[in-house]
Amino acid sequence: MKRYLVMAMRKPNFSDEVIAPHLAFLDELRAAGQLEMTGGFSDKSGGAYVLKADSQEEAQAIVHRDPLTTYGSSTLTIYEWNTR
């Protein structure tokens, strides 16, 4: 399994209405063993989370389901992360 860092940066049209569905989505990922850590930036510009997935394609499919993506309120960028 590989790790993927997902950077989620808020767009100008960001709405607080997406926060609860996004947190529920992250809870589901954690319960499935696919989420290692998550957190928001102190300046409220966005946040990041670390996924565990077998491939970039799998990570992209997961991120595509994130309410931050489906609501169009944030730009999510995925990086394969070679941690030590």
Give your account of this protein's structure.
32% of the residues lie in helices and 37% in strands. With 84 residues, it is α+β, with helices and mostly antiparallel strands. The protein has one domain (2-81): Dimeric alpha+beta barrel (Alpha-Beta Plaits). It is globular, with a radius of gyration of 12 Å. The model has no long low-confidence stretch (mean pLDDT 97).
What can be said about this structure in brief?
This protein is of the alpha+beta class and 84 residues long.
Query: What's the total helix number?
Result: 3
User: Could you name the CATH topology?
Assistant: Alpha-Beta Plaits
**Series of secondary-structure elements, N-terminal to C-terminal:** EHEEHHE
Mean pLDDT: 97
**What is the CA-atom radius of gyration, in angstroms?**
12 Å
Which architecture does the CATH hierarchy give at level 2?
2-Layer Sandwich
Residue stretches low in confidence (pLDDT < 50, at least 5 long) are none
| Structural class estimated from helices and strands | alpha+beta
The total domain count is 1
> What's the arrangement of strands in the largest beta sheet?
2-3-1-4
The H-level CATH homologous superfamily, spelled out, is Dimeric alpha+beta barrel
How many DSSP E strands? 4
CATH class: Alpha Beta
Proportion of helical residues: 25-40%
